[in-house]
Amino acid sequence: MDRPSQIIECEGLLLRRWRAGSDAAQAFRLIEESADHLLPWVPWVAGHSEGRTRDFLERSEARWDSGEIYNYAVVEDGTPVGMCQSHRAEPGGWRLGYWLHPAATGRGIATRATAALAAEMFTLPDVEYLEILHDLANVPSAAVPRRLGFTEVRRERAAGPVAPPGSGIDVVWRLDRPRERI
Description:
This protein has helices spanning about 20-40, 50-65, 110-120, 140-145; strands at about 5-10, 15, 70-75, 80-90, 95-100, 130-135, 150-155, 170-175. It is of the alpha+beta class. Strand 4 and strand 5 (about 95-100) form a beta hairpin. The two termini are about 30 Å apart.
């Protein structure tokens, strides 16, 4: 089974695979410092703890190995400043997700990291398209797919719990595999 690289370099950033044993403390601290910033958009932050962070990283490693999900630390100057991931949406399709520490927002980091992950995912032969999904009210998250040339394809009722101030409507953006030029 083909997998993306465990380390992706991009424009002053490094995306590196999270490791359960060595990264638990850094991941916990990153989530802890970002909790207030994330809580309006990602309900799982409400139950955040050191144990859940370790469990998440352990599951992430197993799911990486099985080819279900690829989680990366977004690293700037040697320090994790966010996370991005890809996970299978359906045959041929993968969803990308991202979030940043509040001190890392507004500098194009999410856009660069997502662009690098998208490029890496398109090196895999079974990836026909990528999607990004965000709550309609999360305007900053909408900027990333727009900047990267994704097209809004639909709006749908959110599948899971919606944290305030979420609208409960998910916006789905899609980017098809670039066609080879002859």
